[in-house]
Specification:
By secondary structure, this protein is an all-alpha fold. The protein contains 13 helices and no strands. Helix content is 75%, strand content 0%. Helix 2 runs antiparallel to helix 3, helix 3 runs antiparallel to helix 7 and helix 8 packs antiparallel against helix 13. It is flat.
Length: 291
C-alpha cells in the first residue's frame, strides 16, 4: 500500500486520529479531579481546562498514530485507521498532531494556570517520545505509558488548586495502577497480534504466568490507592465501602486467572470488568465527595 493518502481525508478521519473514546475518558477523569479538589472554580476555568486537555491529549494520540503508522498496518484492530488504510497522508497527520498540541499550551497556561499546562506538556511529550517508541523495544513501555495516562485527574486537581498535593497525587496513583491490569489483560488476549506487529508486551517477553502475577500485584496496589482517598478526606465512608467491595471483586477475578484453564476468555472478561470498575469507582467518588 502506498504511504501517501489516496483520497482527501474527511472530518471523520481527523476525529479518528484523536482516539475519541480515549480522549473522552481522559476528559471525564480530568473533570473529576477538578470537581474533587477543595476550591470551587469558575465555569470559564472548567471549560478552558477541558478544551486545553482535549487538545493536548488529541494531539498526543494523533502523533502516536503518525509514529506507529507502519506498525498499525500489521495489526487487525488498527489496520483500518486513517494512515495505514491510505485515507490520510503521514504529513497531514503530523501537522495536525503538532498544531493542536501546541495550541493547547497557551489555553492551559493562560486560561487555567502554569502548573496544569506543565502537566499537560509532560503527558503529551512522555506519551509521544517516551511510551510510543519504547513499545518497540521493551515491555517496560507499559509502565512509562501509565504516567501520562494518570496525569489528567491531577491536571483537573491542579486546575482548581494550582499545585500538586496528596489529594491530587492519590488520584494520579489510582489511574496509574488501574492501567496496569487493564492493559495487561489486553496484552494477554491480543499477544499474537502484538507479536506480529513487533511490539513488546509482557506475555510475549516474560510469559503468561508472570503477566498474571503482575496483574494481581498491581490490582492490590490499585486497591490500596483507592482506599487512601478516604483518610485524605476526599470522600466518605460510603465511597470507602464501595471501593473496598469493587476492589475485592477485581482482585478475586484477577486471582482466578491463575487457574490453568483461565485463557483468553478470562482475560477479556477482566478487561471489561476493569472498565466497569473504573466507572463505578468514580461514580461512588463523585457521589460521596467531601468538597
Amino acid at each position: 500500500m502506498a504511504s501517501g493518502a489516496t483520497t482527501r481525508p474527511k472530518l471523520a478521519d481527523f476525529i479518528a486520529l484523536t482516539k475519541p473514546r480515549i480522549t473522552l475518558m481522559v476528559l471525564i477523569t480530568a473533570a473529576g479531579g477538578m470537581c474533587l479538589a477543595p476550591p470551587h472554580v469558575s465555569a470559564v476555568t472548567l471549560v478552558m481546562m477541558l478544551v486545553g486537555t482535549a487538545l493536548i491529549v488529541s494531539g498526543a494520540n494523533a502523533l502516536n498514530m503518525y509514529l506507529e503508522r507502519d506498525i498499525d498496518r500489521k495489526m487487525d484492530r488498527t489496520r483500518k485507521r486513517p494512515l495505514p488504510s491510505g485515507r490520510m497522508s503521514a504529513k497531514t497527520a503530523l501537522w495536525f498532531g503538532v498544531t493542536i498540541s501546541v495550541l493547547s499550551v497557551p489555553i492551559l497556561a493562560i486560561g487555567v494556570n502554569a502548573v496544569t499546562a506543565l502537566l499537560g506538556v509532560l503527558a503529551n511529550v512522555s506519551y509521544v517520545l517516551g511510551y510510543t517508541p519504547l513499545k518497540q523495544r521493551s515491555h517496560v513501555a507499559l509502565f512509562v505509558g501509565a504516567v501520562p495516562g494518570a496525569i489528567p485527574p491531577l491536571m483537573g486537581w491542579t486546575a482548581a488548586t494550582a499545585h500538586c498535593d496528596p489529594g491530587g497525587l492519590a488520584l494520579f496513583a489510582v489511574l496509574f495502577f488501574w492501567q496496569i491490569p487493564h492493559f495487561l489483560a489486553i496484552a494477554l488476549f491480543r499477544k499474537e497480534d502484538y507479536a506480529r506487529a513487533g511490539l513488546f508486551v509482557m506475555p510475549n517477553v516474560l510469559g503468561v504466568g508472570a503477566t498474571k502475577q503482575s496483574i494481581i500485584s498491581h490490582t492490590g496496589a490499585l486497591i490500596a490507592s483507592t482506599l487512601l482517598i478516604f483518610p485524605l478526606g476526599i470522600a466518605g465512608r460510603a465511597y470507602l465501602i464501595t471501593a473496598f467491595v469493587l476492589g475485592c471483586v477485581f482482585l478475586g477475578w484477577a486471582s482466578y486467572g491463575l487457574r490453568e484453564r483461565a485463557g483468553n476468555r478470562w482475560a477479556r472478561s477482566l478487561f471489561f470488568y476493569s472498565i466497569a470498575y473504573l466507572v463505578l469507582l468514580f461514580v461512588a467518588l463523585a457521589a460521596d465527595a467531601r468538597v
